[in-house]
Amino acid sequence: MERRPAEQKDAGFDGVEIHGANGYLIDQFLRDGTNQRTDAYGGSVSNRSRFLLEVTEAVCAAWSPDRVGVRLSPTGIYNDMRDSDPMATFGYAVVQLNAFHLAYLHLMEPLPGHPLAGPGERISPQLRRLFKGTLIICGGFNAQLGAAAIRSGETDLVAFGLPFLANPDLVRRFPEGASLNEPDFATLYTPGPKVIQTTRR
User: Fold this and answer.
1) For helices 86-97 and 45-62, what crossing angle results, to 10°?
2) N vs C: which end of the chain shows fewer Cβ within 10 Å?
3) Residues whose CB is less than 8 angstroms from the CB of residue 51 and which lie 6 or more positions away in sequence, other chains included
4) Helix H or strand E segment including 148
């Protein structure tokens, strides 16, 4: 496939993120709790990582690698995902991803107490030591916890999902220390402002 400069991409995007998290297809190949294959894509950690690495290679051939990110959820339980040894599985995958010189690696590994937090300790700090590029983490962080994670060297950047959906002006609220709206799951993806119905008496 011919590589073209990012600015010439037909859709006009700045880059792409490969979604290898949250129980979707790539995640199903990676984890031994779901991958029951007996061919070259199943069994050993290297075989289970093969699909992720082939997808990453193909995307980096179409885009410049510095326009490509990969998202993983090493201990995530969403969609009933599980793995008998997440550190072995994702440690191997992360080391292999170093060869692509990606724009970033994005780890969705919620903090303890988050409804999607997996059992046991988070392994993002260990994966940080293995990944040589820019790391993004997410999952239950607020402004203070995010800043602390960056200061400690656990990550380079912190991503915010639900807080941003509930607070489109989050980048203003954080530095001002303003209060945040709680996410309303009934209206998260509806267009325009929330409309409150009232009944006249």
Assistant:
1) 30
2) C
3) 25, 26, 29, 30, 41
4) helix 143-152
Residues in the chain: 201
pLDDT over threshold 60, residue 9: yes
pLDDT of residue 6: 47
Is 92 annotated in the active site?
no
pLDDT, one tens digit per residue, over 16-72 is 999 999 999 999 999 999 999 999 999 999 999 999 999 999 999 998 999 999 999
Task: Indicate the pTM of the whole model.
Answer: 0.87
C-alpha–C-alpha distance, residues 187 and 166, integer Å:
9
3-class state of residue 122 by DSSP: coil
Q: Are 93 and 107 in contact (CB under 8 A)?
A: no
Question: What are 136's two structure tokens?
Answer: 């993004």
Q: State the pLDDT at residue 137.
A: 97
How far, CA to CA in Å, does 8 sit from each of 57, 63, 68, 103? Answer: 20, 10, 15, 18
For tokens 């954080």, name the residue: 174
> For the chain, how are helix, strand and coil distributed in percent, rounded to 5?
40, 10, 50
One-letter amino acid identity for 112?
P
Among the options 24, 41, 78, 92, which is catalytic?
24
